């Protein structure tokens, strides 16, 4: 039986905390920032927790985390 591999895209995007919750960064903060307001860009800073409905699929992509 071969080893289960981690999805390389998922390992770049998600971090599993010690408590078991999964941390993710905000979307819509990479490019086309000129038309976004300063308030919007400020609120897109920081990290969030992955929603409960998506945790199962993210865990499947990170079998060794």
UniProtKB/TrEMBL annotation:
Gene3D superfamilies: 4.10.410.60. InterPro entries: Ribosomal_bL35 (IPR001706), Ribosomal_bL35-like (IPR021137), Ribosomal_bL35_CS (IPR018265), Ribosomal_bL35_sf (IPR037229). It comes from the Bacteria. GO terms for molecular function: structural constituent of ribosome. PROSITE patterns: RIBOSOMAL_L35. The keyword Ribonucleoprotein applies. GO terms for biological process: translation. The keyword Kinase does not apply. Keywords: Ribonucleoprotein, Ribosomal protein. SUPFAM superfamilies: L35p-like. GO terms for cellular component: cytosolic large ribosomal subunit. Belongs to the bacterial ribosomal protein bL35 family. HAMAP family: Ribosomal_bL35. This is Large ribosomal subunit protein bL35. The gene is rpmI.
